[in-house]
Amino acid sequence: MHISMVVHVHLGVVPANNLSLIPRSPPKRKPLAMKLPSETHALQARNTHPAFGSIFSTHGSSKLQSNYPRYLPRQGGLSRAEFLVCAQGNTTSQTEGNCFGEVVGDTMLAEFGMQSSKENRARLALRLKNDEEKKGQASRYVANLKDRYGYGSSTSCLVYNATGDTLRYHDYHDWFRGSLYEREYPKEIGNGQWAAFLHVHRNGDPTGSVGAVVYRGKHTPSSDERDFLLAWYTPWSDLTRHNKAYCNIGPVDSYKDRWDEIRTALEESSYTSRSSADGVEVDAYTDGGTSPTFIAIIKQQARGP
């Protein structure tokens, strides 16, 4: 006698008496791949991927970012980093491609089960500061710039935005006629993104890499704005002077025509600098040597318990 047994398996159904097994919060969101490709890989992808025919009719990092999700589900789709690297060769803007990481906005808050607010966007951005190895990608990007630039005093600059809102480029100043190498300052740094750029000394002059950039952003949920000054000092030789970092937070246009005063503050600074005002904080620091890395993190101030 043969007895047949049929077993019914119901996937995804929780018995009524085991409702406590249902998770109370959504699982951690799996981030998008952020592999930084080689130039050869990027060129091959640009020439063969079926999506590229329609992507590059638009310009601007925000449009490139918004176009990307439409191509993610395609088989053999590119990572976001590959998408942006390929886009660099097909746009006229000189500011594309030197911001790294997915913008932390309200959509991502929902994916993490968090309520929509500027404070939560800032908190999540700080928590994801090293997510998807985006800092590593920014570091490799600026290291490649340095390799192409070659010998000479320079400063590899990395800036992270954890303010909860977009930071917008406002102004810059170069002492001793230094300049950025190949790419300009990013016009916008999204919340949760690393910006990367290389500042170099004036070719032929032993003056060092000494410069500053001002980004503008909101410091409260209202429309109030503040300017964030970031400055670095890398002398031609570190035998007599050491590298310095300086940062400051001020009202809109508070740094206009004050560059002599700012240079004095920079030269009186040290390897690290911190500034806080109106609930926002900036930390800046630099390495030693004639080709250091300067890092600035702009974030909301931590609140006590």
Q: How would the blueprint of this fold be written?
A:
Elements: H1 39-48, H2 52-55, H3 61-67, H4 80-88, E1 99-100, H5 106-111, H6 118-127, H7 134-149, E2 154-162, E3 167-175, E4 179-180, E5 188-189, E6 194-200, E7 209-218, E8 225-234, E9 244-250, H8 259-267, E10 272-277, E11 280-286, E12 293-300
Parallel strand pairs: 2-12
Antiparallel strand pairs: 1-6, 2-6, 3-5, 3-7, 4-6, 7-8, 8-9, 10-11, 11-12
Helix pairs in contact: 1-4
Summarize the structure.
With 305 residues, the protein is α+β, with helices and mostly antiparallel strands.
Labels describing this entry:
single chain; 305 residues; alpha+beta; Mutm (Fpg) Protein, Chain: A, domain 2; 2 domains; seven-stranded mixed β-sheet; 23% helix
Write up what this structure looks like.
With 305 residues, the chain is an alpha+beta fold. The protein has 2 domains: 61 residues, no CATH class; 170 residues, Cytolysin/lectin (Mutm (Fpg) Protein, Chain: A, domain 2), CATH 2.60.270.20. It has 8 helices and 12 strands. The strands form 2 sheets. Strands 1, 2, 4, 6, 10, 11 and 12 form a 7-stranded mixed β-sheet that branches. Strands 5-3-7-8-9 form a 5-stranded antiparallel β-sheet, covered by helices on one side. A hairpin with a 2-residue loop joins strand 10 and strand 11.
